[in-house]
Design goal:
This protein is α/β, with parallel strands linked by helices. Helices cover about 45% and strands about 15% of the residues.
């Protein structure tokens, strides 16, 4: 099935130093598996192709402003980032989009929030609707956290949502696979980056 590129967007979730680089806050958990998977290189290619096709590319960063914004300490994850919130300030080194994608972020759009879903606590869903977008392709880290949470919310909001299975990664392959299995059931289906590019053409 072909997809109208004018009605699609790519959401690039949590491609931040804090999440996937060894020096980042979650580096000890994520950096090795992300590097081993090769997911960054594949996502860079997909993002470039999306931009070339005129598909909106939207980066979502997890940041914590000085007033804490919409941060709510209602999970262990949120308690952890609240305790270390200085490293998640919008201008902190760890909050920045990784160098491989910095130019793509400048060419696209960047939304910041303090939620696990990339669509929560921010007007991104409204912005997408205003652009006429009804189909979303998700890339990012981690598969079982921001990617799955965003995919579920996007689906409930009415978007046809596809996780790009070779452009997402988790702390372990087993966790990644289990999350993708869940997402096959609750979204419009997971696709490879090659399948996405084929459909967009």
């Amino acid at each position: 099935m072909m997809i109208n590129a004018r009605r699609a967007a790519v959401l690039a979730l949590h491609w931040q130093v804090n999440v996937i680089r060894p020096e980042g806050f979650f580096g000890g958990l994520m950096a090795e598996s992300v590097a081993r998977s090769g997911v960054v290189e594949r996502a860079v290619r997909l993002h470039d192709a999306a931009l070339a096709a005129g598909v909106p590319l939207v980066f979502v960063r997890f940041t914590v402003p000085v007033d804490e914004g919409g941060l709510v300490r209602n999970t262990a994850f949120m308690h952890a980032v609240a305790d270390a919130q200085e490293v998640f300030r919008p201008d902190a080194p760890g909050s920045q989009v990784i160098p491989e994608m910095a130019g793509q972020a400048e060419a696209g759009r960047v939304f910041d929030n303090q939620k696990l879903s990339g669509l929560a606590g921010v007007d991104l869903a409204d912005w997408l609707a205003d652009q006429g977008v009804d189909t979303l392709f998700l890339t990012g880290v981690a598969t079982n956290l921001v990617v799955e949470q965003t995919a579920r919310q996007a689906t409930d909001l009415g978007f046809a949502t596809h996780v790009v299975r070779d452009c997402v990664a988790a702390a372990s392959q087993a966790t990644h696979n289990a999350s993708l299995a869940n997402l096959e059931l609750v979204t419009a289906g997971c696709l490879t980056s090659a399948e996405v590019l084929s459909r967009l053409r």
